[in-house]
Amino acid sequence: MSRRGAPSATARNGAALVYTQGIVTEFQLIIASRRDFGYTSDTQRIHNGSASNPEESASMYQPKYAITGTLLARIGDAEALRAKVQAAPVQVAWLESIRLDTLVRRAHFSTAIEGNPLTLPEVEALAGAKQASTTDRARREVLNYFAALRWIARRPQGQPITMDGILRLHRLLMTGLLSVGQVGAFKRSRNVIMSAGRVVYEPPGPGAAAPGTEALAQWLELAASSTHPIIASACAHYEIARLHPFLDGNGRAARALATWVLSRRGFDTHHLFAVDQYFKEDHEGYYQALQRVRNEDEDLTSWLEYVALAVLDTLGRTYQRIEQLALPASAEGLSLTRQQERLLLELRGKRGMTVQELQRLLGVERVQVYRVLRPLVSKRIVDKSATRPVVYRLASKR
Q: Does position 25 have pLDDT exceeding 50, yes or no?
């Protein structure tokens, strides 16, 4: 899939996209002039920033954007892939393995965007409570991100996202990295974004931090409830990046909040894909997409297209991964470990492997290889030869 930034919106007409609860979503298009932006769920119309209630206009965050054909197509494709992932028969067996991998990738790539030096295997080792050889700060950044993601995963789906919740998220991300008074607290002085020794962005001052974050939280629970989760998540991501309401950790907070919105809105309830990987791999394009919104008078259209592409790409990777193995019906009730997943992937396309070869593959003792194999053999996923030396191969009928 292309790594280029999102194309500009060229259509004259925009469309409001209404998201309805359910496994397969329903899209409702409401055509309006391209000069109109945003969406009000009560009147089901596109607007240009004016609220039907005058009191709301002073406090409610109101993103401006248009639904282009490009955005609509990407969201539609993402929905189709998401449905395939959820319907995949291998999902139950792979669920815990994929969840752990997603946790690791989210923590690794989001912190790596900010310069964390840990490698993916080192982050995976930290997830397994193993020792990683690196600086204490680098380890703390990753462990904090794990804590934030696990906290998000424990949130009841119906629990609203509030300003206090966003502050709690920041506290989890930055404990031990900032002073006690700065963790889970809004900035009290101005901050700027530097690149190559020059200021590239000066966010709003500290006086805008609390009101702006509160306005965003209100929008996420009111107007955003009828906006597609990908759009709501992207808007939340950008707004925290725009406000930069904290002294430090704003990028991580923005990406973690985006993850929370997708979970809260029922789009990624099983936590199966890591959009942060796309952002890190397209590091320059990611920052260009954020900057483009500022250059286009805070019109989020191109950013929404970019984020939709990122979601589509990572969903495609997840589906490709679970499609690699077609486990038989006998696998029902089995929850694959990461070692079992690795073993099965290695056996795919091979005529078989001995215990010694599997030992080298997994890097474990012989007795552990047998522990990994035993459930797979008993479920008739892997066959054991009757010859010597014993060879293990994928069962012939899959």
A: no
DSSP string of 30-99?
Answer: EEEETT-EEEETTTTEEESS--SSHHHHHHS---B----HHHHHHHHHHHHHHHHHHH-TTHHHHHHHHH
Check: CB of residue 151 under 8 Å from CB of residue 168: yes
Residue 215 to residue 209: CA distance in whole angstroms: 10
Q: Which of 265, 300, 323 is the last residue of a domain?
A: 323
371 and 276 fall within a common domain: no
Q: Which residues pair with 8 in a beta bridge?
A: none
Residues 171 and 144 placed together within one structural domain of the fold? yes
What pLDDT digit, counting tens, does each position of 207-258 carry?
999 999 999 999 999 877 789 999 999 999 999 999 999 999 999 999 999 9
Residue 385's SS3 state is: coil
pLDDT reading at 27 higher than 50: no
Same domain, 165 and 241: yes
